[in-house]
Write a structure and sequence with these properties.
With 402 residues, this protein is of the alpha/beta class. Helix content is 20%, strand content 31%. It has 4 domains: 162 residues, Molybdenum Cofactor Biosythetic Enzyme, Chain A (3-Layer(aba) Sandwich); 54 residues, Molybdopterin biosynthesis moea protein, domain 2; 83 residues, Molybdopterin biosynthesis moeA protein, domain 3, CATH 2.170.190.11; 77 residues, Beta Barrel (Beta-clip), CATH 2.40.340.10. Bound molecules: adenosine monophosphate and magnesium ion. Adenosine monophosphate binds next to strand 13 and helix 3.
Length: 402
């Protein structure tokens, strides 16, 4: 059996980096992955400007009780004239500093009357309240690294440089295959012996939620020919295929033979994790295929903690492992298992600033109602008696599904 960390790393290592790029507008950029490193092309601010509403003067012209004639009024967007010695310029936040001025007096420290300004408080320092050219960004310096997931903050930085669009990786195209004779689609009539296909909707949402494109979702019956046809359609159309169910050792677990009959190479892993265990990585005509366990909770957890780094790598992202924290696990009885356990928990903030994790009562791998309840997964070590209050790694699903 493969250890969890090893399986996670091997999956990510099996992932090809993206090659296709496209140019998108800033409006379309959030959530996309920057494909090229970008350097600043502008000094920002482009010129010294005022950080406050007030008056620009020469520091040397200040003396207690100074009363300076107002030479000009400079609004944001105006081009100022040079400041004459012994005079002041009225200006506002964002107004350019006129040549010759070196200090801004805030308007609260002045009185204006008869075309003059009286300075009632001594300036604290030469150069005060001036935003210097280039103090934010400097032309030629690195701005953003390739592999960055663009969010509002990055879009703001790109827009400030005057960029209207940006080169990103093409969205990762992911196909989903669900399997099973017992399944009917939501909205259809259901016989007693049937259940609704929840994994198709779940995986579609997980794929989109991480920022990839759900290219196609197919369902196959538990028949080799049906599975083969669906797999072939998906590998022809996608960068990555996720199949779910039909991959353990039952008589109707035919995904493995279907992959082999398409000439695919397949490595079946027993990962020492719970829920999960059977996970397979295959390659059909060069396209990677990950086979997830059929139980909805297992598929969800395995996608979140085991497979998501692989998807992020295929998206071109540099940060493929979201942050982990540690928190106290609250349990009624000590627990121990021969596999590492990923327990569905809710995180609660403590008054001292710490956090504690409460497990969902029923940890069965078919208990879908536990999924919307859980904020994350607590990772319990294998072969160790875990006591109440033990500090364990916490996988926050807001990060691990993003
Ligand atoms: P399998 O791995 O195909 O044996 O499936 C394991 C369990 O997960 C069985 O109880 C299946 O009915 C259930 N299951 C498999 N696929 C789905 C699905 N797409 N939606 C809901 N339940 C599923
Ligand atoms: Mg099945």
């Amino acid at each position: 059996m493969l250890e969890f960390d090893q399986a996670q790393a091997q999956l990510a290592d099996a992932a090809p980096a993206p090659t296709r790029t496209e140019t998108v507008s800033l409006a379309e950029a959030p959530g996309r992955v920057l494909a090229v490193p970008l350097d600043a092309t502008l000094d920002l601010p482009p010129a010294d400007n005022s950080a406050m509403d007030g008056y620009a003067i020469r520091h040397a012209d200040y003396q207690p009780g100074a009363r300076l004639p107002i030479q000009q009024r400079i609004y944001a967007g105006d081009m100022p004239r040079p400041l004459a010695p012994g005079q002041a310029a009225r200006l506002f936040t964002g107004s350019l500093i006129p040549e010759g001025a070196d200090t801004v007096i805030v308007q609260e420290d002045t009185r204006e009357a008869d075309g003059h300004v009286e300075i009632t408080e001594a300036p604290r320092a030469l150069g005060q309240h001036i935003r210097r050219r280039g103090e934010d960004t400097r032309a030629g310096r690195p701005l953003l690294a390739a592999g960055t997931v663009l969010q509002a903050a990055h879009v703001a930085l790109l827009a400030s440089q005057g960029l209207a669009d940006v080169q990103v990786y093409a969205k990762l195209r992911v196909g989903v295959l669900t399997t099973g004779d017992e399944l009917v689609p939501p909205g259809a009539a259901r016989a007693t012996q049937q259940i609704y296909n929840s994994n198709a909707s779940m995986l579609g949402a997980l794929v989109r939620g991480i920022g990839a494109e759900l290219t196609q979702a197919l369902h196959a019956r538990d028949e080799e020919s049906d599975l083969q046809a669906a797999l072939q359609t998906l590998v022809d159309d996608c960068d990555l295929v996720l199949s779910v169910g039909g991959v353990s050792v039952g008589e109707k677990d035919l995904v493995k033979p279907a992959i082999e009959s398409l000439g695919g190479e397949l490595t079946l892993w027993k990962v020492r994790m719970k829920p999960g265990k059977p996970v397979a990585l295959a390659r059909i005509e060069g396209t990677p295929l990950v086979c997830l366990p059929g139980n909805p909770v297992s598929a969800y957890a395995v996608f979140a903690v085991l497979v998501s780094p692989m998807l992020r790598r295929m998206q071109g992202r540099t940060e493929i492992h979201p942050p982990l924290s540690r928190a106290a696990l609250r349990i009624e009885r000590p627990r121990q298992d021969s596999r590492e356990e990923f327990v569905r928990v809710q995180a609660h903030a403590l008054p001292d600033g710490g956090m504690e994790l409460t497990p969902y009562g029923n940890q069965g791998s078919g208990v879908i109602s536990s999924l919307p309840w859980a904020t994350g997964l607590a990772r319990l070590p294998a072969d160790v008696l875990v006591q109440d209050g033990a500090q364990v790694p916490y996988y926050d699903l807001r990060h691990w599904l993003a």
